[in-house]
Amino acid sequence: MASSSDKNTIVTNGMSNFLRDNINANSALLVNITPDDFKDSSPLAGMYFQQNLEEKAFILGGSNYYAPIQRVQDFLENKKSTFIGNVKPTYLPGVTLSNLNDILPDFVSTTLKEGIIYFNSKLSGFANPDSLLTGVETRSSSPIRIIRNSLLQSNIENVYPCGEGAGYAGGIMSASVDGIKCALQIINKFI
User: Fold this and answer.
1) What backbone phi and psi angles, to 5 degrees, belong to 17?
2) Where are the domains of the chain?
């Protein structure tokens, strides 16, 4: 699903409809990024890292809001995809055959390749040569964290930063749990 929020960027987000009856399965592969991976120690360095990848994906996709895609076999072999195999892309408005290795930092590409091979050893077929990588999904977790105290409030009284956007979760379930924790703090304040 197209999820860009800025001009001239590509942000993808995997999504499963309620019935889970789409033609393709959907999964995400995440690579841990730490402040040591950023160019500088700016508090916004994570956001700039993310933005840079989104801008590169826009250009790699053809500068027309098409997402760059690559067959898994081609990704593992570090070569541009030249055809779409058995797995058909579903990203709208469209896709461009690419080499995602061209825009991803080496440590990200290497980690993704190791992850694909590892998952395939546990789930035969995960590394299907025709499976598609659609890039880039950079919004799995916030690149910044809003600091909160032991009562889960920010430095502004009665403001409870929570979930992924505030930097306290890395997915739907952990965001839900964090939301419950904040809700309980609010309830306890009035009991």
Assistant:
1) -70, 160
2) 35-134, 145-191
User: Among residues 57, 72, 61, which one has the least CA distance to residue 95?
Assistant: 61
Give the 3-state secondary structure percentages of the chain, helix then strand then coil, rounded to 5: 35, 5, 60
Q: Identify the CA nearest to 32 among candidates 91, 89, 114.
A: 114
At 96, is the secondary structure helix, strand, or coil? Answer: strand
Instruction: Check residue 71 and report its DSSP letter.
Output: E
What pLDDT was estimated at residue 126?
Answer: 92
The answer to whether the CB of 97 falls within 8 A of the CB of 70 is yes
Other CB atoms within 10 A of residue 82 CB: 8
- State yes or no: pLDDT of 25 exceeds 80: no
- 8 Å CB contact between 87 and 132: yes
DSSP-derived letter for residue 132 is E
Distance separating alpha carbons of residues 128 and 117, to the nearest angstrom: 10
168-to-3, 47, 49, 152, 176 alpha-carbon distances in Å = 21, 16, 19, 11, 10
Q: Residue 63 — left, alpha, or beta (φ > 0 → left; ψ -120 to 50 → alpha)?
A: left
pLDDT given at position 14: 77
Residue 169 pLDDT greater than 80, yes or no: yes
Closest CA to 144 of 54, 13, 51, 28: 51
The model's confidence at residue 145, banded by pLDDT at 50, 70 and 90, is: confident
